[in-house]
Amino acid sequence: MQICSLYSGSSGNAVYLRLGGVSILVDAGKSARALCRALTAIGTDVSEIRAIFLTHEHNDHTSALENLLKKHRLPVHIVEASAKGLPLASDGALTENLVIHPILYEESLDGLIVKSFPTPHDSRASVGFRFSFTENGMRHEVGYATDVGFLSEAVVEGLTGCEAVVLECNHDIEMLKEGPYPYPLKQRILSRRGHLSNIDCTSLALKLAENGTKHILLAHLSETNNTPDIAFDEVFGALAGSGVNVAVADPREPVWLVREEPHELTENEEKENAAC
User: Fold this and answer.
1) Digit-coded pLDDT (tens) for 122-166
2) For the whole model, what pTM was predicted?
3) How far apart are CA 64 and CA 228, in angstroms?
4) Residue 90 carries which DSSP code?
5) How far apart are CA 234 and CA 198, in angstroms?
6) Is 262 helix (H, G, I), strand (E, B) or coil?
7) What is the DSSP code (8-state) at residue 74?
8) Count H helices, E strands: the chain?
9) In whole angstroms, what is the distance from residue 30 CA to residue 201 CA?
10) Closest-CA residue to 16 (of 255, 195, 250, 218)
11) How far apart are the first and last CA of the chain?
12) What digits encode the pLDDT tens for the residues 179-195?
């Protein structure tokens, strides 16, 4: 299992996942050049990516697609309503890469099962994901939810029980209220179709830890209304003693949450597995 935020924030989002031997991306913000450089920095490249799964159509999650897809014919999985909001949706050459789904869908890639669930956000549609896969004979699940206005039942259910979770931790409420954003934008962010606060992220992180989550990546932090230290201290402080690994995504650099290399079975382990 490998989980790495290539970059995450208001300027662009992309997360690399290698689950059950299958490499995918969730979202493709910034530029194709930035995305390829980030992949190179973590020791892989676009040729290893099997598919891209998009949470929604907003520019900070999709802006790398147009140039990326001109050179690399990757399947891009997207909800139908979101696809209609993509600038590239009218370009026939690029739409060939889009795999259109209803808001609730399930996709399989060589044993990696991807299930979507709705997330409350002010886009045409927005989804999170639950990934299920087998490694070394053991079943694993990973959850993903960013751009979440509030902790809906679908979001909580979609993430609960996952071993590792990528979760939005967008803003400190007081920083946002006292910050430079215009009032309408503040209200949008604070709304039930906006972004998840540190307080709500912490609340869900506690519930996830109680249900077996061991790794949490705090993602989509606002550079204006949050800081990595504030987000980490609030979430990690609440989880003190739980043994949960917490990492904070960076807007410019890759950050690893889980970096487990594939385990090669010894001769004795192979014999033990055969005897089971």
Assistant:
1) 999 999 999 999 999 999 999 999 999 999 999 999 999 999 999
2) 0.92
3) 25
4) G
5) 7
6) coil
7) -
8) 11, 14
9) 25
10) 255
11) 24
12) 999 999 999 999 999 99
Q: Where are the alpha helices (DSSP H) in the chain?
A: 32-41, 59-62, 65-71, 80-83, 92-95, 153-159, 173-178, 183-190, 198-210, 228-238, 267-275
Residue whose entry in the numeric block shows the structure tokens 């001109």: 70
**262 pLDDT above the threshold of 90:** no
The angle at the Cα of 1, spanning 98 to 170, to the nearest 5 degrees, equals: 65
Which secondary-structure segment (H or E) carries 162?
none
> Using the 8-state DSSP alphabet, how is residue 88 labeled?
G
Q: Considering Cα of 87, then 93, then 98, then 100, what sign does the dihedral take?
A: positive
3-state secondary structure 219-255: ECCCCCCCCHHHHHHHHHHHCCCCCCEEEECCCCCCE
Which one-letter amino acid corresponds to residue 203? S
Domains identified in the chain and CATH numbers: 2-275 (3.60.15.10)
The CA angle 17-22-23, to the nearest 5 degrees, is 40
Residues forming beta bridges with residue 76, ordered by sequence position? 52, 98
Taking 90 as the threshold, does the pLDDT of residue 254 lie above it?
Answer: yes
Cβ(231)–Cβ(219) below 8 Å = no
